[in-house]
Design a protein that fits this description.
By secondary structure, this protein is an alpha+beta fold. It contains 3 helices and 7 strands; from the N terminus they run ββββαβββαα. Helix content is about 20%, strand content about 25%.
């Protein structure tokens, strides 16, 4: 059974209130049933956070909205389609204090049956399903992805 969370406010997915402004990318904490889909990044020195556990997502192309960026990257990286109705939370973040453009973070839920459809694309070493607590306990989780997951937990009362 998928996790159930109360969503206060509205989810706009990149269409309203300035969400089509310039941004550099989008990531998603994607629940497959009750577990998070994580990807071990490639171990290359020319990418940020090599050999660390990440969530699906990446950089914006052309005039994509934040939702479009996240959905395309998720299809490319793990062969899953995230419908708009799967989004339960979103937030705009500055990547770092020196960032010139924001990035977007989504939380979405797919049924546990979606696990059978996961196929790793051209990026990443492997994927793994973890509980949120297991992800947060990893020494090699990307720190800002963990902090964004905590932000969602705090905002939604997840414990």
């Amino acid at each position: 059974m998928a996790p159930r969370y109360v969503l206060s406010g509205r989810v706009t997915m990149g269409k309203d209130d300035g969400m089509t402004e310039h941004f550099n990318g989008a990531k998603v904490a994607l629940f497959i049933g009750e577990q998070l889909l994580t990807i071990l990044r490639d171990n290359r020195h020319d990418i940020p956070f090599p050999n660390m556990w990440d969530f699906p997502g990446g950089g914006r192309e052309d005039d994509e909205t934040p939702f479009d960026t996240m959905a395309r990257e998720t299809r490319e990286e793990v062969s899953l389609t995230v419908p708009r109705t799967a989004i339960i939370w979103e937030k705009r973040y500055m990547w770092a204090s020196t960032a010139k453009e924001p990035s977007w973070f989504f939380v979405a839920c797919l049924p546990s049956e979606a696990e059978a459809e996961i196929q790793l694309g051209d990026e990443g070493q492997r994927w793994q399903l973890l509980s949120p607590d297991e992800y947060l306990a990893l020494d090699d989780a990307i720190p800002n992805m963990a902090s964004r997951l905590l932000d969602w937990r705090d905002a939604k009362g997840w414990s």
